[in-house]
Amino acid sequence: MEQKQTINFGAGPAKLPQSVLLQAQKELLDYNGTGISVLEMSHRSSDFNKILNKTEILLRELLNIPENYKVMFLQGGGSGQFSAVPLNLIGLKEDGCADYLVTGTWSAKAAKEAEKYGKVNIVHPKLDCYTKIPDSSTWTLNPSASYVYYCCNETVHGVEYNFIPETNGVVLVSDMSSNFLSRPVDVTKFGLIFAGAQKNVGCAGVTVVIVREDLIGHTLKECPIVLDYKVQAEMNSLYNTPPCFSIYIMGLVLEWIKNNGGSAAMETLNKQKSSMIYDIIDASNGFYVCPVDEGCRSRMNVPFRVGKKEGDEALEKKFLEGASKRGMISLKGHR
Ligand code: PLP
């Protein structure tokens, strides 16, 4: 049967390479000649162990992750990490407090969750709309904070950091869910990076956590055991049944990224793709409007309105209908 030509603009779950889907399709019936489906494999089997190890090795290679960082494949999504981060790290220092940069929905949710476990300081004046990153001269960082947290790409608002925040030695934590592996990253600048796989490196179900070893082991006693980095790191993400299939898919996607030039090539591609849209927006004499400051426009998610700054509802409806007729889906963003 011929496949319908659809262009999926969804931020995540998002488009996957066709070669990945074809291989998964084959291995759903018979994984590597074992006679069983990849879905049927025990997480304690040597075949699954090879998948887990291969996925970690590829990730370490693609991001140049140093030896003193642990890599974990956990459940609970990015939202699970909104809780896991404070539960594991807010006790790093006596004061039990953390600094948050709140530049969009996702960092706002993370900060709110962290308030359950310690004192949270929003380091900059509160933003009335999420269209920019407050200038670092306005930030008041607390040297006693256990960590500084930010969301590297605010998916809903299309605000992306093109710099790594300076924290004067305080541990830096980043939610990279929606721009993970979209460009090279110097992992050594971070204490912890996490990312849900469903946006850039696979399907929903697995969240990657990369954490510097010396930050592990300061967990608050109320931390659920499945979110405890010490337990999961010591057990190679196998304390409980891991999201096996999602890890398998991630391995295939990482292989695809490697075969297609790695994170540097992804960066070039993402710049090319996003500029195609920004160029049209900028040349449209205000017909298309992107509300985000130019300096922090995301290369991953491009929010725009149609007709006027605050959007012309009738025109936007027409735009979406026209797109849909052309097989373009998931263009409607958050209101
Ligand atoms: N962080 C970012 C940047 C996101 O875009 C999302 C979801 O879209 C999340 C966190 C939450 O992830 P999850 O839905 O996997 O909990």
Automatic annotation (TrEMBL):
InterPro entries to which the protein is assigned, alphabetical: Aminotrans_V_dom, Aminotrans_V_PyrdxlP_BS, Pser_aminoTfrase, PyrdxlP-dep_Trfase, PyrdxlP-dep_Trfase_major, PyrdxlP-dep_Trfase_small
Q: What is this protein called?
A: Phosphoserine aminotransferase
Q: Any idea where the Aminotransferase class V domain is? A: 8-308
Record-linked NCBIfam families: PRK05355.1, serC_1
Q: Name one GO molecular function term.
A: O-phospho-L-serine:2-oxoglutarate aminotransferase activity
- How would you classify this enzyme at the top EC level? transferase
User: GO CC: one term?
Assistant: cytoplasm
Q: Which domain of life is it from?
A: Eukaryota
Q: Which GO terms describe its biological process?
A: L-serine biosynthetic process
Source organism: Dicentrarchus labrax (European seabass)
Taxonomic lineage is:
Eukaryota, Metazoa, Chordata, Craniata, Vertebrata
Quick one: which pathway? Amino-acid biosynthesis; L-serine biosynthesis; L-serine from 3-phospho-D-glycerate: step 2/3
Provide the catalytic activity annotation: O-phospho-L-serine + 2-oxoglutarate = 3-phosphooxypyruvate + L-glutamate
Keywords, alphabetical: Amino-acid biosynthesis, Aminotransferase, Pyridoxal phosphate, Serine biosynthesis, Transferase
Q: Which family does it belong to?
A: Belongs to the class-V pyridoxal-phosphate-dependent aminotransferase family. SerC subfamily.
Q: Which cofactor does it need?
A: pyridoxal 5'-phosphate
Q: What is its EC number?
A: 2.6.1.52
Q: Which PANTHER family has this protein been placed in? A: PHOSPHOSERINE AMINOTRANSFERASE
